Amino acid sequence: xxxxxxxxxxxxxxxxxxxxxxxxxxxxxxxxxxxxxxxxxxxxxxxxxxxxxxxxxxxxxxxxxxxxxxxxxxxxxxxxxxxxxxxxxxxxxxxxxxxxxxxxxxxxxxxxxxxxxxxxxxxxxxxxxxxxxxxxxxxxxxxxxxxxxxxxxxxxxxxxxxxxxxxxxxxxxxxxxxxxxxxxxxxxxxxxxxxxxxxxxxxxxxxxxxxxxxxxxxxxxxxxxxxxxxxxxxxxxxxxxxxxxxxxxxxxxxxxxxxxxxxxxxxxxxxxxxxxxxxxxxxxxxxxxxxxxxxxxxxxxxxxxxxxxxxxxxxxxxxxxxxxxxxxxxxxxxxxxxxxxxxxxxxxxxxxxxxxxxxxxxxxxxxxxxxxxxxxxxxxxxxxxxxxxxxxxxxxxxxxxxxxxxxxxxxxxxxxxxxxxxxxxxxxxxxxxxxxxxxxxxxxxxxxxxxxxxxxxxxxxxxxxxxxxxxxxxxxxxxxxxxxxxxxxxxxxxxx
Length: 496
Hints:
Distance between the termini: 50 Å
Number of strands: 21
Structural class: alpha/beta
Shape: elongated
Strand content: 15-25%
Mean pLDDT: 92
Radius of gyration: 25 Å
CATH architecture of the largest domain: Alpha-Beta Complex
CATH class of the largest domain: Alpha Beta
Number of helices: 15
CATH topology of the largest domain: Spore Coat Polysaccharide Biosynthesis Protein SpsA, Chain A
Largest sheet: 7 strands, mixed
């Protein structure tokens, strides 16, 4: 990928591609959700931008309060239900009412700025995709120094390496975060969404909250797949005017450039990437997904300590854990989540192996490790015992296997887990939840089946629970710990 694609801020770049979209008779309906008055200054910018476009744009603003708007802008006041966050769902009724009157339909929150160039690029690219695929956008923010970051890529969200496809000379990839606080549909898209029965529904939420669900239903409920045109990435970047996530979450430009470059190389290879580790679940709010960018949920450095031996980390994210281990003197080998995450700048400090476990195993089969660490991956993999067994014989005679996992018997999670249990037909199915029900007892059982002996369990207690005293010995530790780690070893008789 050419680095210049991502160098500039959206308003500073120019599109030099020949115009392939006839906009002479184009018409667009834009519906903007604007709760309260705090974002009115951004709303004014949005309206001005749309009203200055070179084709017909009709604007409807949804709000819970009356507010002054320019002439020819329609205001609809009221909430779909009593929850204030339900406001965005009101745009669906507007789209349905006017589904046959416009060529394109735009929904956004009141601080998302789509330009005429964004819409032209959307129309151009949409013609190259299948009927069930829709070009999508990614939000960009900048801080006071002008540095750009991308808030849609955080926590467990990532590019799906195996999703890279070529369509009409362009390269596309799926970003697991389908929310960008906006979307665009053609008339054909909208009519298909309405016909699916999943579009014109009342306020609801599951993996995304209400605000996000309203902007992702076309992809999650209507049979469409959102694909980001990475070969024209800057044209599908939209400005998040409020910059509300700067400094708190989001991927910096340099790291994004590495990841998009990896996606382009996958496309150029013509082979496609083998699927890597699964890192997210199908549960409400993506509960128990592996955070790829944060510090480990358990104090791994405190368990492993300093050393100068070998560590193997299975299922590496962005490298926060592995970087910390190298700082403690260890030589670290890593099996990344996938080939895209493998390009993380922090992982340059370690020896990165294949993201395919069987291949990675062959790459280090002559080595013996003092520690093998599986941080928040076993409960997400379809066959955790097989994964443990695959690597367990790489332990040195004094080596230890460290397995970290959320504790699904944590008392605070029990109500939500019961909802998932009953939602899936009074059972906990990996196929339906995307996660094995993991507790200390479960992990001990996995270890035994893989030929390992669990030696101890380390609990991580939230701050509230720590007030109860010496909780690691407390009878209720299994209910009060949000995360846990199991240290296991190979029985001595297994060594030759």
